[in-house]
Design a protein that fits this description.
The complex is a heterodimer of chains A (155) and B (77). Chain A is α+β, with helices and mostly antiparallel strands. Chain A has 3 helices and 8 strands. In chain A, β5 and β6 form a beta hairpin. In chain A, α2 packs antiparallel against α3. The longest helix of chain A has 18 residues. Chain B is globular and about 35 Å long. The chains are: A alpha+beta (155), B alpha+beta (77).
Chain lengths: 155, 77
């Protein structure tokens, strides 16, 4: 189910066409269980929010990505997290590309560590770095089928 | 130099394309001006430049066959 695009041995960053099926969550947790030296996994699941913008509701988001650079930047995120936190055993990021409807999942981040504090804090930091560093763009599609490019709040 | 330029996000709509090849490029400044001549609307947008997948904050020194990417502000997640 999970397709690794460029770095088959890295097992870190996956770009998936369309919404992430909720089943990928159990897949990544099951995969993470292979690291028996982990004491916990922290999981972030991002979904498309039905925002109200200028009187119109968001129906879906269309994601596009600079794939090669997503892979190289994800590698840098991993190195940064490994240097900042102790005892990280696994980092896995799944991000959608293409159209994802409101209420569907567009991002799954799993970080495993020896102990809970590092897992939770490193997962939080990884999500922030994903927002800042990954060359991914989104266009909001409204219920009247009009469209608008959207930027993340902070760089 | 031959340089491949790729555009992302809103810039694909501003330029009407995702990639364009430029030949006989003398420098980044030369390339930038040619892109602005081809797509005058681009000057109204914020973007950063990446060369071969690496963000370049200054004026990059280009070499033959480099890939130059025009990147609007990121919006992942």
């Amino acid at each position: 189910m999970i397709r690794n695009v460029k770095h088959p041995n890295l097992n870190l960053m996956h770009l998936i066409d369309g919404p992430l099926p909720p089943g990928v969550i159990s897949d990544v947790v099951a995969n993470a269980g292979n690291n028996t030296d982990s004491g916990g996994h922290s999981l972030f699941v991002g979904q498309v929010r039905r925002d109200l913008v200028d009187g119109k509701y968001v129906k879906a988001i269309e994601y596009s990505a600079y794939e090669e650079m997503v892979m190289s930047e994800a590698d840098k995120i991993k190195k940064s997290i490994l240097s900042e936190f102790d005892d990280i055993k696994k980092i896995e990021i799944l991000h959608s590309r293409g159209v994802v409807n409101a209420g569907e999942i567009s991002l799954v981040v799993l970080v495993s560590a020896g102990h809970r504090h590092d897992a939770i804090n490193a997962c939080s930091k990884t999500v922030e770095l994903i927002k800042q560093k990954l060359p991914i763009w989104k266009k909001e599609i409204f219920e009247d089928n009009s469209e608008q490019w959207k930027e993340n709040d902070s760089l | 130099m031959d340089i491949n330029v790729i555009f992302f996000g809103v810039l694909t709509e501003v330029t009407g394309t995702t990639r364009k090849h430029y030949g006989n490029v003398k420098s980044f400044s030369d390339l930038k001006h040619r892109i602005e001549d081809d797509f005058p609307g681009i000057i109204h947008y914020n973007f950063r430049i990446a060369v071969n997948n690496e963000i370049s904050d200054g004026e990059p020194v280009l070499k033959e066959a480099d890939e130059v990417a025009y990147l609007p502000p990121f919006a992942g997640g």
